[in-house]
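Consider the tokenized backbone below.
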């Protein structure tokens, strides 16, 4: 049983709920909260897709909260430096 401070990261892969692993589905249904990242208006369809996946795989009510990912400065050409900034 996870401690109350465990965090499980689950990628959506291809975005098809049928492609989630059983391990991912069990984790989603075991956890107390699901966080969905928002990646800006240009990628709003990803948050909608994550909600659709949850609708398919949740077997019990689980609170879902969205959060905004910080935007990386496109003026910094080096990826690693952009992430660190």
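A designed sequence for it:
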């Amino acid at each position: 049983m996870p401690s109350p401070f465990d965090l499980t990261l689950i990628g959506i892969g291809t975005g098809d709920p049928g492609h989630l692993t059983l391990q991912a589905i069990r984790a989603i249904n075991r956890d107390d909260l699901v966080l969905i990242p928002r990646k800006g208006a240009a990628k709003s369809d990803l948050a909608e897709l994550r909600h659709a996946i949850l609708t398919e795989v949740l077997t019990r009510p689980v609170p879902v909260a969205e959060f905004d990912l910080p935007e990386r400065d496109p003026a910094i050409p080096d990826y690693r430096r952009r992430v660190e900034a």
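The chain has three helices and two strands.
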